[in-house]
Amino acid sequence: MTAASGCLQQDSGKPASTTGGSATPSSSAVTNNTTASPTPSTTAPTNTTAPTNTTAPPSGNNTTAVGEFGTVYFNDNDSSGKWTLSNTYILHAGDPVPDSSPNSNHLTAKRWSATETDKKSGQKSWTSQDPAAKGYHDNEFNQMRINVDLRKATTAFWSFAYKGDAEANGWEGLYWDVSTNGGTSWEALGSQASKTDNYVKDWKSMHVDLTKYVGKNVLIRFVFKSDISCSTDTDLPDDAEACGAHKSYSGFWIDDIMVTEK
Fold it and tell me: Residue 174's pLDDT is what?
């Protein structure tokens, strides 16, 4: 067979001498019979290229997320959280001072309360509605607030769902705010207080970015506001003429409240 590169080769010197009748071995002994075995090639095979599906996992909290929402910082999806509830009568310029009779709507205005009458999921939701009036009263500032610890968070989102209605005047409606100083001041994050259409028939889901507040303890709150007139069960004398038959507003419901990593 044909010798491969690197195998033994024959010497090309002259034939052995015959002097004296005896053959004298050639002094040109084969010198390359100790040639080292071929050295294996160290060139890497071309098929060792890394597969394209080894892309690094997404950076950030997505690499350690637990479940659909990641870390859950606050969860009140069944309206059982220990919120601070309060309601304040708002005295606008020109408003009559409310009397102290048992039937004064201003003094008996209801706070946010848990209800089974309407909910998106679970057993209950929160409502700003006064069940007795099946609506709300004039000049309410009805709030519910709670602390959420974001000191160990790197991202945070406030999600909830709401439905309901109020007078469409740009003031009356539902607001959601955040505070970083214990409630001394509040930053408005959004509202349902339209001037043209303030009716939300079906549950509407919200996802509010709180990432700018991570590293802090914060308060979040919902506020329901109403103005001087046209509530569901008003006691101001000029309302009947001003509002006519348009006093069937119900207030709002909130459900599935969570603050999560994503």
Answer: 97
